Amino acid sequence: MSEAILEVRDLKKHFVVDHIGTFRRQPVTVRAVDGISFDLQAGETLGLVGESGSGKSTIAYILAGMYRPTQGRIHFRGLDLFSENGKRPLFLKKEIQIVFQDPGSSLNPRRTIAQNLAVPLQIHKPDKNIMRETLRLLELVDLPAIYMYKYPNMLSGGEKQIVAIARALATDPSFMILDEPTSALDVSVQGKVINLLMRLQSDLDLTYLFITHDLSLMRNIATRVAIMYLGKICEISKGSEFFQNPQHPYTQMLLSSIPVVSKDEEKLKPAKMIPTGEIPSPVNIPPGCSFNTRCPKKMDVCFEIDPDFVEISRQHFARCHLFGQTQKQG
Amino acid sequence: MSISSQSDLVSAEISPHEFSQLWRASRRESLGRAWYKFSRNPLSLIGAGTVLFVIILAVFAPYIAPYPEHVKPFTDFANASNPPSSSHWFGTDEIGRDILSRIIFGYRFSLTMGLVVLSIVVPVGVFLGLVAGYFQHTWFDTIIMRITDIFLAVPPLILALSVASILERNLLNSMLAVCLTWWPWYTRLVYGITTGLRNEFFVTSAEITGASKFHILFREILPNCISPVFTKMSLDMGWVIIIGASLSFVGLGVQPPNPDLGTMVAAGRRYLPDEWWMSVFPALAIVLVVLGFNLFGDGLRDLFAAENS
Amino acid sequence: MVNKAPLLEIKNLRVHYKVYGGVLKVLDGVNLTVYPGEKVGLVGETGCGKTTTMKTALAILPVPPGVVVGGEILYKGRNLLAMSPRQLSNVRGREMTMIFQDPMAALNPVFNVEQQFTPVLKHAAKNHLSNKEIHAQAVLALQDVALADPERLLQAYPIQLSGGMRQRVCIGMALATRPQLLIADEPGTALDVTIQAQVLRLLNNLVDRLNTSIILITHSLGVVYETVDRLYVMYAGNIVEVAPTRKLFSNPLHPYSQGLMDAVPKLSGGGISQGISGRIPDYSHPPAGCRFHTRCSHVMEICRHQKPPEFEVEEGHKVACYLYGPKNQEAAV
Question: What ipTM score was computed for the predicted complex, to two decimals?
Fold first, then answer.
């Protein structure tokens, strides 16, 4: 077992979105991330999957240092990412980089690719030749050198995203957060970007937290997969095990919703699980298990008690009363 | 053929000279594209032509004006109050000065007014807007934007009039008065752009890699403000000229015998309607320059709007 | 089904856009046929001309810059491109309706659901409708799309509805007039996967029940696999392959279709293919001959000069590629 480079413990992020009441003002909070714990091993790809409003991007933004968590600890190689004095030291900024979803907004439209790439270089490698480093980065991601003089609007979406990846690599990070890096791209382009990311991972010993809503994609690249629903992880397990033996009702619903393109895949979909309902607003998370509004296997206990995270089999955890009971019986 | 599709074939082995050539080609292409879009609308072309025409008149006034000496203290009562004729296209005023020559020189004051005011107002307004927008929801934002709101609540002409009236009457002070009323518009504009951009991923990305506030404000956000600010400047040139002329009209701006369009309209209005040319031609001259800058600015706005979509 | 007269027939449609630096030759002879009651899919990458095709069919193509250079669109044998606006409005919105990708943009935020229904139903009934009838029809339409409590929902504003409900309202509106042809442009793309599955299933059941023909435009192969009878694959303004859906998925013939099918990540694993190298050509200077030849790994000499016609490989399975031309077939035998 390799070492855990990232440890997230009981992470919570609540946003105050509004206040209600005229005199005694009550804050309205969105519990975007509501008690999440996971580890990340060096060199692995953890797929974090969920629908919109599940809080997966919030986790990415917290890890990248855009938000401070409301509660909980995050340790990166044993160092607290959010120490008391608040400022993240430069060497940690260098180690953790992020690639965003929207290639259109990731690059400054008024600056050339070279100028865009120079931003992290000037900060983290002030003693190096910026021009040479820029060329090295473009070579690393297989883009022609001439691209440095182009403006982002001259590039296709896939190329913009590749430049965004190059910029993230500029600081020589060891951990990259990929926040839906291909969801805005066509499938024919997605393959190129994903393969580039996979090659970079093995060449540069990178660890990925790959956030996506595309389970089929995760099947092919993730070492482990975690499913999120309303700010909590419902199920987490090894990639292969995950798809052969999904346990949590929400995971099954998600799998059965995926549009597939072959008979082999149809067999993998849990047939009995017909998707129903929509994800509730994170302002009004139902009491008990948050999935109880849509769950076809709901029981009385689901409306009262929020289930614990249980290990169903080795390295396979789920948060559902179905398994809590079997554990007690056994 | 756009160079973007050619360059896929270009290998990494390329000399700096070729680099710069390709870069210039790409610049040429984007300029060509901009000109094409701009020239699609005949009104923007008319605006641009008018602006250029007025600028040439103002710059080369001593060579173009038929009677340059009429701008200085000058009287010729023999030719006073002549209607438009072949020797005086726009007629002469009550002391015999050629109105056309005085209009041409008058443009010098109008353009100076516009340029000086904008070159003071724009940097101040843009800077405050940038900082307030980036530090949104802080005390700095609150203070700057509330002051801005107060200024914006008062009509600019009235504010300029009241400021100019307590100062000594000259061109410099009238420009100062206009400056005081004008900066908040730029602050508002840039504030709006900045608050939108600070959540864009390229800004976030620079922040979390550890870029300085200076870098983010002036290298990341400011370049994105340039097009709209430029558009507003060209639209504002016309307005500033009008306000300047209005101040001169009520006697608070350029002082006689210097030829200012507003002063000329004011002086000529006493002879209406019989000697109409004394006020109508300077007034038309104001209309021309203001309209020119407005059409030009509209063209620029359409151009930048198309560019961003 | 083949014996029936086609409902909509797009024949050799060519559409250009006039822009700076020349003419974008976007549609280069598109042929597409829909039979009554048939579900047809149109897939292709962003910028391949799917939406331009459908906008032209609905006569909502912005002109300028768009110009229809050639071809015809026959609806029940009548050419839509030659119709007067009045004749056109008799067809569009009554017999032919559309669903868009973003339900929030398709609904006007200042009107409640009933007010959104009113003009649609009025137009379809040529204005002979009382408020009561409108209300009754709107309630029916919402029941069609399985929305609970339609009376209350009619008074709701779009902002009060969830994404899935909005798209259901749009579907209800599009089908309220019982059209014969529904054009759905990426109907589930803006939705989450579990909601997309529900909306697509609903749409599918509804068009089956009402016997409406549907053209489903999408970039997602998964969406069409489970929905449509016949599938058109489009590349750079050309239909490159058409076949019954299952056949096309099990045996794609055109190198582009093969690349596309290959690029979809499979739930059954097997890694991610590199996709298709290169990108969609510059429409101002499209490659001569087959437009795909610059990206094709099977390119032959003829592909560079001559545009491939459609070869019917099997009944209903046509492919525009010289690999399946008579000469090659003989050579292969």
Answer: 0.84
DSSP helix/strand/coil, A309: coil
- In angstroms, the Cα distances linking B20 to A150, B17, C88 are 12, 5, 54
Q: With an 8 Å Cβ cutoff, are A149 and B26 in contact?
A: yes
Q: Residue A125, exposed/middle/buried by CB under 10 A (0-12, 13-18, 19+)?
A: middle
Structure tokens at C107: 């609904």
- Within B135-167, where are the H helices? 139-153, 156-166
Query: In this structure, how many other beta carbons lie within 10 angstroms of the beta carbon of residue A132?
Result: 10
Query: CB within 8 A of B142, min separation 6: which ones?
Result: none
Strands annotated E in C115-258: 181-185, 213-218, 230-235, 238-244
Instruction: Give A161-202 pLDDT, tens digit per residue.
Output: 999 999 999 999 999 999 989 888 888 888 889 999 999 999
A81: closest CA among A123, A69, A45, B201?
Answer: A69
Among the partner-chain residues A110, A119, A139, the one whose CB lies closest to the CB of B206 is A119
Q: Is B36 on the interface with C (CB under 8 A)?
A: yes
Q: B307 burial class (0-12, 13-18, 19+ CB within 10 angstroms)? A: middle
| End-to-end Cα separation, chain B, in angstroms | 21
A136 touching B (Cβ < 8 Å): no
Subunits in contact with chain A (3 or more CB pairs closer than 8 Å): B, C
H/E stretch holding A33 reads: strand A26-41
In this prediction, residue A48 carries a pLDDT of 93
B7 in Cβ contact with A146 (< 8 Å): yes
Give the span between the Cα atoms of A225 and A215, in whole angstroms.
Answer: 9
**CB crowding C262-271: b at 16 or more within 10 Å, else e:** bbbbbbbbee
Tokens linked to A314: 């080795």
Enumerate residues 17 to 46 of chain A having a beta carbon within 8 A of any beta carbon in chain C.
Answer: none
The domains of chain B, with CATH numbers, are 49-68+89-308 (1.10.3720.10)
What class, spelled out in words, does domain C8-95+181-197+206-274 have in CATH? alpha beta
Separation CA B290–CA B117 (nearest Å): 15
Distance CA C189, CA A275 (A): 17
Tokens describing residue A42: 């060096």
Chain B, window 116-175: residues with a beta carbon less than 8 angstroms from a chain A beta carbon: none
* CA gap C221, A287 in Å, rounded: 38
pLDDT in tens, chain C (333 residues): 455 788 888 988 898 888 776 788 888 889 999 998 899 999 988 888 888 888 888 888 777 788 888 888 888 888 888 888 888 888 888 888 888 888 778 888 888 888 888 888 888 777 777 888 888 888 888 888 888 788 888 888 888 888 888 888 888 888 888 888 999 988 877 788 888 888 888 888 888 888 889 999 988 888 888 888 899 999 988 999 999 998 898 889 999 999 888 888 888 877 788 878 777 888 888 888 888 888 888 888 888 888 888 888 888 898 988 888 776 655 544
Give the containing element (helix H, strand E) for A10: strand A4-20
Give the Cβ contact number of residue A43 at 10 Å: 16
Q: What token pair was written down for B292?
A: 């020119």
Strand partners, C235: C238
Please give the C-alpha separations between residue C280 and each of B228, C286, C294, in angstroms, as whole numbers. 33, 9, 9
